[in-house]
Amino acid sequence: MNQPYKVIAFDCDGVMFDTAAANRAYYNTLLQKLGLPAMTDRQFLYVHAHTVDEAVTFLCGRPDLIEQAQAHRKYMRYLPFVKDMTMEPHLIPLLKKLRPAYGTAIATNRTDTMQRVLLEHGLESYFDYVVCASDVTHPKPHPEGLIKIADHFGIQASELFYIGDTNVDEEAARNAGIVFAAYGNPALSAAFHIETLAELESILL
After folding, report:
1. Is the pLDDT of residue 1 over 60?
2. What pLDDT, on a 0 to 100 scale, did the predictor assign at position 80?
3. 48, 58, 63, 70: most buried, per Cβ within 10 A?
4. Which long-range contacts (CB under 8 A, 24 or more apart) does 89-93 make?
């Protein structure tokens, strides 16, 4: 099948991995150190889609608590929480089928944990390029990260295909002018809606 796409990019949390348990444990541990209550479901939805700095500001509110949280975070390694991340079962089989016909990339609002996650799960060799929040001036929903991926591969925006699961991903894709596939979230506006990564085979292969 002749497809117009040249690069397939993935969000991490909620697409490559079910990270709900890991992220809840990480942020609740941080809040506990500050004497604050555990996250509500509404707070978690925000934290799930945004950078760690945005999440800390949202959860703590007061400047003094934000400062304390950031100080604690410097000594809180994410590695103990990686074990709570569950890889999407079709991720590696899909990546093996996509490569080398397609370039593969990640666009995530994770800041400083993505390389560790890839290493711990044996995924570092499956991706050609990774863009984290720390690699851009403006994280998602700004399109900078996705545009950076297109520029890296020397392709047009229309040749980049992005899979995400939140309105932050949807907005970034729309603003970048790229094709968007919504994973597990039928409420999003997308060219494709999927419930598993295996469904991408019929779209891309």
Report:
1. no
2. 87
3. 48
4. 89/196, 90/196, 90/197, 90/198, 91/16, 91/123, 91/197, 92/123, 92/126, 93/198
Helices vs strands, H then E, count in the chain: 10, 8
- Residue tagged 């609740």 (tokens): 28
DSSP string, 36-104: PPPPPHHHHHHHHHS-HHHHHHHHH-SHHHHHHHHHHHTT--SHHHHTT-EE-TTHHHHHHHHTTTSEE
Least confident of 34-43, 77-86, 87-96, 133-142: 77-86
pLDDT at residue 77, as a whole number: 81
Neighbouring CB atoms inside 10 A of 152's CB total 14
Nearest residue to 27 via CA among 2, 51, 3: 51
pTM above 0.85, yes or no: yes
Q: What is the largest CA-CA distance in the chain?
A: 57
In terms of C-beta density within 10 A (0-12 exposed, 13-18 middle, 19 or more buried), how is residue 111 classed? Answer: middle
Q: C-alpha distances in angstroms, 98 versus 5, 13, 26, 48, 127?
A: 11, 20, 33, 27, 11
**Confidence check: pLDDT of 169 > 70:** yes
